[in-house]
Predict the structure.
Amino acid sequence: MPLLKRKPYVLSELPTDLKPRQHVYQIRFTREIFRDYETSEYLTKINLYRQRVWTCKVTAKTNLTYEEALISELNATEKIQQFPNELVPLVLQTVQFSMLTLKDLVNTITEKLQYHLLEGEELYGKRDDGVCLCQIMKVLAEGDNRTRYEVAWLDKDKKGIGTAVVNVEDLIRKRLPFTREVLKSFIRESTNQNVPWVLHDKLAQEHGISTDPPEELRSKYFFKDGYLVTNKKKRKIEDDKQNIMETRNGQVGKSKKKVEREKSEGLVMENSAEKEDFELKEEPINYPIDDLLVQPGPDDPVFTDRPSPSRDFTVPMDCIGDLLMVWDFVSSFGRLLHLFSFSLQDFENAICHKDSNLIIIVETYSAFLRLLIKDDGQYFAVIEEKKRKPKITIITWTEYLCDFLEMIEIPELSSCIPTIKRGHYGLLETQAKLGIFRELITQVIATDLFRKKLDGYIEERQTLAATKRGEAIEEGRKKREEKERLKAESAVLQETNEHGLENANTGDDALGNSNGKNISKKQKVDAKVQSESGKDPSEKEANKMTLQQPRADKKEASEQKNVEQRREYLQREIDKRFIRKEPLGKDRDYNRYWFFRRDGRIFVESPDSKQWGYYSTKEELDAFKGSLNRKGMRERALQKQLDKSYDKICMELQKRSKDVAQKIAMEEAVLRRSTRVRAPPRDNPAVAFLKYVNKWKED
């Protein structure tokens, strides 16, 4: 059982009055059961088990989660099972009531077992002024606590070549049959407390080891609730009982003898109020914790009100998840499907439209079905059996779709076959249309063509990531070298300035100390030139550095810009190799947040996936970011991801807002036209999906 603060942790008891088929919450690794999610101890327990405050009881490893401590104990226990059974009684006898530290105790046991040999053990023995491999056949006990051993001498092939009786001094042990770490783990597993080390009662009785403390410990320790405690604790317990009795009798004061004893032992506190405050003082909370456990604090920043997401979808609310999944798949793997991309708004309008032969829908179905035919799988066999032509057209696409629905044999979708065969696909429910797309994607993902493409994407992503990582390391190396170079140049320049200053001072002194009458005009000029020459090198060097500084700054800025552009390019290339879409994160209520670059909106999904909404403006994004509490684990991770992608998300949001404003202006312009020159419906942006053309279609 893992330890919390070096003490055993008691698990919650199982409820006894549970009803059959009642929904409960269970912690997987402790098997604890709770009735509800929020109001019970379930969240508190989960948060505690995830913290790195647990200690493995067997190995004493710290900073583990509860589950990691359990795994560590399991692995260590498996190693302990390999401990020789013949040595267990001797080790336990040495451990019981020992006052040594664990390290000293292990050393003592190791030295004691160094000459405790077992039958069947292989080691080396002295023979004819040499050393020969041997095996102990029998232990011969003699008087005066002396032990001799009957051994069999072995050759290189470990075959017997003779026997002999030798003393323990003539035997050389290769090594103990266990490691020190295994011995430490065995000691921890066998005891319930340390210094003094006390064995578990059941284990001590099993090996006939006394559980009564020796005479020298009885005056210092006593047993309480199965644990050996000091007499100081016993005296403290007695004092607490006496305080309770005095309080009941109205005697609040303490006896003189008692106060003197407490002062001598350093156990007196200033007053009872301070003692209570000390005991009830709460430990500081280490954030982040589970979001639902976060309470308002005085150090919290000013949070903004979380904006309500928009919910003006055309499709039913329970179909939004499938709609996004299908659209994101065809947008991400359009090249593989030979399907030109289209907007989410166009796809949503097309799904809800009652026309049965919309080009955007026909081309999407045809792209999926063509890929299944190319794979030469089950669907290809069905087409061959019905002798269909390999080319799918706007006239025959419903026949291929019905063949697919008959192949997968899903009752909910098979009921749509008669309607599709009559040419009324557009009259199907939205759930049925998206359900067919969902099953087509499931079949496409299982094809060899798709898996081969996905494997290629994975390899390319790994290569690009390695290139990006290598360039970042190289850039860091260059920055360190540049920093060292500038530091060296600065030191040289400083040294040059000091040297020039010394030369100038020397020239001035020589000029001042000379006798004016004995120095000619030429000598004065030479001294002046010499004085100026001492200043010139440093001044020229400084001027040179000053002139080069703007040029160097400009070059550095240009190189930094190139590095940033290169980094952005590699990240774009990695993003193009789509593998799987992941949400940005979750908020405190487990709502998931999704961002699709091709759409420019942040979608909000409820925990049960039944409610959806979206944010479409930068103002909503900023307000949402300001409402996140970093003290919670989920909202901290979500805010970190939003900060990382903030510029990219804002750019897409602003682009979408601009496009929406342009579409609204176009719609208003269409409405203002005269009825005599009414524009055709296809010019209206609301029906732009009717003009879709698949530019990547195969010939």
Summary: Residues 251-256, 263-280, 514-535 have pLDDT under 50 and may be disordered. The radius of gyration is 42 Å. The chain is about 50% helix and 10% strand. The first helix runs from residue 42 to 50.
